[in-house]
Design brief:
The complex is a heterodimer. Chain A is α+β, with helices and mostly antiparallel strands. Chain A has one domain (about 5-80): Phosphoribosylformylglycinamidine synthase subunit PurS (Mth169, Chain: A). Chain A contains two helices and three strands; from the N terminus they run βαβαβ. Chain A has helices at about 15-30, 55-70, and strands at about 5-10, 40-45, 75-80. Chain A has a three-stranded antiparallel beta sheet, with helices on one face. Chain B is of the alpha/beta class. Chain B has one domain (about 10-245): Class I glutamine amidotransferase (GATase) domain (Rossmann fold), CATH 3.40.50. Chain B is built from five helices and eleven strands; from the N terminus they run βαββαβαββββαβββα. In chain B, the strands form two sheets. Chain B has a nine-stranded mixed beta sheet with strand order 2-1-3-4-11-10-9-6-7, sandwiched between helices. A two-stranded antiparallel sheet of chain B has the order 5-8. The radius of gyration of chain B is 16 Å and the shape is globular. Classes of the chains: A alpha+beta, B alpha/beta. The interface of A and B includes residues 14, 68, 69, 73 and 74 of A.
Chain lengths: ~90, ~250
């Protein structure tokens, strides 16, 4: 059963207060090179393919995101279909 | 739980979700002020029981799983609340209720994590931005209220188009302010866009969303009685509309 990973992040136009705090902490630890730190959510799920290809699964999961998993006013999402969440 | 007063038979529906924690405060405010009776409506119900107005109260519905209000908006009772709002019924969303109404699309925008990341729990200054609403009709324009806030995700956010519409349609109800009414960063407890604390929606300016808790400010012994007139205004609006609603 394909594993699907959804990455939900705050829209770039919104201040990510948590990201800013983490970035400050990284800088205090000497990691000045870390910039643009943003925090988000990872939602993992198993979705039966039922004959659908990766695009078909992606469309179904996109509907889930639009309806529940992400708030279109404040958040963006990215969907990865595959056994390994890091694969495109 | 009835006020027992014949003249005050107005019934306020208070929605109760798992995790609501201001439902009794809201119901008690309504009854303590002698405005009528509170009717508690469970999230799984499909019936508003003919109440005259609805409060979606504060708390942490469904433990704020995913996002504050994200799950609550799909509760069966919310279908009825949406229908009631679309017909022009008065709906008040306070704190988590505001978050839920935004998630449900009954109000524009959304509420995100406070800028300072801290849960803010204290009295704040609140400036009445318009009295053209069934919720603020008894205040005076620019009046400064002292009302408590208690939230971690109260930073109002919306796109520029929405903000422009809110302004053009005079739908910003409250802004956070200093004691003298000045609006600015220092008096903004959560980084809210343009210090917005409450907005109006609905087809007939009949839906209110606000982060502060007027139900916790109904008597001097609570630190402030500035929330009273909001509930009194709701009663007045309901009484003015009652014949029309009964006929419908």
């Amino acid at each position: 059963m394909p594993k699907v990973t959804v990455y939900v992040t705050l829209k770039p136009t919104l201040l990510d207060a948590q990201g800013r705090t983490v970035e400050t902490a990284l800088h205090q630890l000497g990691y000045d090179e870390a910039t643009g730190v943003r925090l988000g959510k990872i939602i993992e799920m198993q979705v039966p393919a039922d004959g659908a290809d990766a695009d078909g699964i992606r469309r179904r999961v996109a509907a889930m995101c639009d309806k529940l998993l992400a708030n279109p006013v404040t958040e963006d999402y990215r969907i990865v279909v595959g056994e390994d969440g890091s694969a495109a | 739980m009835s006020s027992g007063s014949g003249a005050s038979s107005l019934r306020l529906g208070v929605i109760v979700f798992p995790g609501s924690n201001c439902d009794r405060d809201a119901g008690c405010a309504w009854e303590e002020l002698g405005l009528g009776e509170a009717v508690y409506l469970w999230h799984g119900d499909h019936d508003l029981q003919g109440v005259d107005a609805v409060i979606v109260p504060g708390g942490f519905s469904y433990g704020d799983a995913l996002r504050a209000g994200a799950i609550a908006r799909f509760a069966p009772i919310m279908t009825e609340v949406a229908r009631f709002a679309e017909r022009g019924g008065l709906v008040l969303g306070i704190c988590n209720g505001f978050q839920i109404l935004c998630e449900a699309g009954l109000l524009p925008g959304a509420l995100v994590r406070n800028e300072g990341l801290r849960f803010v729990c204290r009295h704040v200054g609140l400036r009445v931005e318009t009295i053209d609403s069934p919720f603020t009709a008894l205040y005076t324009p620019g009046q400064v209220l002292s009302i408590p806030v208690a939230h971690g995700e109260g930073r109002y956010a919306c796109d520029e188009e929405t903000l422009a519409a809110l302004k053009a349609e005079d739908r910003i109800l409250f802004r956070y302010c200093a004691a003298d009414g000045a609006v600015g960063e220092e008096s903004n407890p959560n980084g809210s866009l343009e210090s917005i604390a409450g907005i109006l929606g609905g087809p007939n300016r009949n839906v209110l969303g606000m982060m502060p808790h007027p139900e916790r400010a109904i008597a001097g012994r609570l630190g402030s009685a500035d929330g009273r007139l909001l509930f009194e205004a709701v009663r007045q609006a309901l009484q003015a509309r009652l014949p029309a609603l009964t006929a419908a």
